[in-house]
Amino acid sequence: MAVLAGQVHAFADLLIAREGNAETLTAWITRTRSAYLPFLHSFAHGLERVTATPSTPPSPCPTTTAALRAPTPRSSSSSG
Question: How much is the pTM?
């Protein structure tokens, strides 16, 4: 429990913007992965995915892109 509390406090300290936080976060993830903290392991994995710089940006999903487009106005035709 003490290790878990220490890691939670150490992570909370990272929420304050400081020089060197990137390196501190990397060290935090390493410590978390080396400790037996299964609940924090998935959190650390998610942080690694978010902070990793992809070599190529992901391509947009066509269905998502289409859903984000503004709808085109329909022409109204009146018979009469």
Answer: 0.56
Is residue 45 in a domain? yes
> Both ends of the chain: CA-CA distance in Å?
79
Domain that holds residue 33: 2-52
Task: Enumerate residues 6+ apart whose C-beta is below 8 A from 41.
Answer: 32, 33
* Residues with Cβ within 8 Å of residue 39, at least 6 apart in sequence: 4
3-27 pLDDT, tens per residue?
Answer: 889 988 999 998 899 899 889 988 9
Number of domains present in the structure of the chain: 1
